[in-house]
Amino acid sequence: VSEQPPSTDLITLSRHVMDDQLRLGAAATGDLTLLLIAIQVTSKFIATNVRKARLINLVGLAGETNVQGEEQKKLDVLANDIMVNALRASGKTAVLVSEELDNAIIIEEKNRGKYCVVFDPLDGSSNIDAGVNIGTIFGIYPVRPDSDGTIGDVLRPGSEMVAAGYTMYGSSANLVLSTGSGVNGYTLDAALGEFILTHPDIKIPSRGKIYSFNEGNSMYFYPPVTNYLNSIKYPKTGSPYSARYIGSMVADVHRTLLYGGIFGYPDDKKSKSGKLRLLYEAFPMAFLTEQAGGVATTGTKRILDIMPTSIHERCSVFLGSRDDVQDLTKFYASER
Ligand code: AHG
Ligand code: MN
Ligand code: MN
Ligand code: MN
């Protein structure tokens, strides 16, 4: 057995995004780099709290309900506060949109920067108390050239984002990021307190063997979804797909990026617009999926092309391997 010596040349996330900035030369001011560095610190801070949650009475409900009518968990509120404080203090943001805040935050002039961040501070709330994987999702827009930062700067198609990513708090903390030229994954080395590049240039396999839907909603699904799912569970040739559904979008998408297959949360007879929120769930994940060579659609339309009209709106989501998502969209095309 040949053993490789440990690497003495670690590529940290800070080093990697700074290299990116240098490649862009004078065009880059370094503001996006500093913003990304601020975001990675929030992920470390949230990760340590997630790890300790059971020990420091951070499990359970906070006692409030968010604008979506969901009961907030203590960790939802804590993660939101960590992100708002750090993003404001970074001096690089102008508008913040969080799942947990009814309204957008417009940053006051003295702290104002050129970027808008939309985020889901803690994704997978229902899994917190069981210690199952959860995450943080974020997307970044530049403010429009003529703007000081208004709601109009975030009511724009996801294709106008300049960066998107998530951190998954699982058996390790993994930060997955795209600044528009591919997708890279970093793993938190807890001893160093640094995210290290472990998954350079992630590409989704063009076809997978896994489907990831909450099939408990089957009685509400529309025919294209039901018929597609039947086609992969009862294939005419070959073997059926495996089911994997964690119920934390971050974890289900992370596995889909690495292993391939399809993740879906469709609109249905009960949830007319689906469940997932366009700005801070669907857009960032669609951005990452496309950057990794996959496809992200509502079934009939590219997600990144949607023009949002309100910050908490929802949309139908299917994303993953190109061939798998195309198989699904054929059912939509033929059954309309
Ligand atoms: P959040 O915890 O941020 O409110 O998001 C929950 C989302 C998402 O993580 C997941 O894909 C989905 O809700 C799961 O919904 P079901 O429990 O209805 O399957
Ligand atoms: Mn929620
Ligand atoms: Mn979420
Ligand atoms: Mn959330």
From TrEMBL:
Gene3D superfamilies: 3.40.190.80, Fructose-1,6-Bisphosphatase, subunit A, domain 1 (3.30.540.10). Pathway: Carbohydrate biosynthesis. Pfam families: FBPase, FBPase_C. One of its GO terms (molecular function) is fructose 1,6-bisphosphate 1-phosphatase activity. Coiled coil: none annotated. This is Fructose-1,6-bisphosphatase. Belongs to the FBPase class 1 family. Its cofactor is Mg(2+). Its EC number is 3.1.3.11. The lineage of its organism: Eukaryota, Fungi, Dikarya, Basidiomycota, Agaricomycotina. It comes from Suillus discolor.
